[in-house]
Amino acid sequence: MPTKKLIERFSVAAGNVGSVVIPVDSVAAAAEYIAGKIDGSLLVPSFSTASRFKLRAALKKAGVHIEVDKLRSVAEQAEAGITGVNFAIADTGTLVLESTDEDIRLATTLPPKQFALLDPKKIVADGIKAVVSLRKFHQRDPRNYIAYVTGPSRTADIERVLTIGVHGPKELFILLVPGLSDDFMEM
Description:
Layout: H1 3-16, E1 20-23, H2 27-35, E2 41-43, H3 48-52, H4 55-61, E3 65-67, H5 71-74, E4 80-84, E5 87-89, E6 94-98, H6 102-109, E7 113-118, E8 123-124, H7 127-140, E9 146-149, E10 154-155, E11 163-164, E12 171-176
Helix pairs in contact: 2-4
């Protein structure tokens, strides 16, 4: 399936589960978008594309207050977290993140808002197409954490009433940034 169709399919599926999908043309544009969506601090764990594209500097330039050290002690007070994405699954609007690093897990689960940077070339059609990459993760390290994120956190455990944000972020923003990385093993 051509990338344009996969992006469309992914965007519709992600929107159907409550995510907001925003195409941007650069990391700087992503930082500007984030600056317009938060007033508090942003957890910025270390991940390879963030380092390569100088995400922290772009966020600071856009006026975002970032937290980069000792995330465990500041995560509960942060307004948002940001990570990269290893790849995404179009038919469900799911993000797949290798999240063995605790700082990645903190940035994606504790703050009420999550921002995810995704290269559109890393969208696969369905779960079957994801198997090859998932096997590579487990061959590289059989004890890693793989997170599947499909929309904001939701539960209906309490009297079968759908509640958003109980076990994770209330809002999920997926920023499609072309040229980040086409390597599914890299976040």
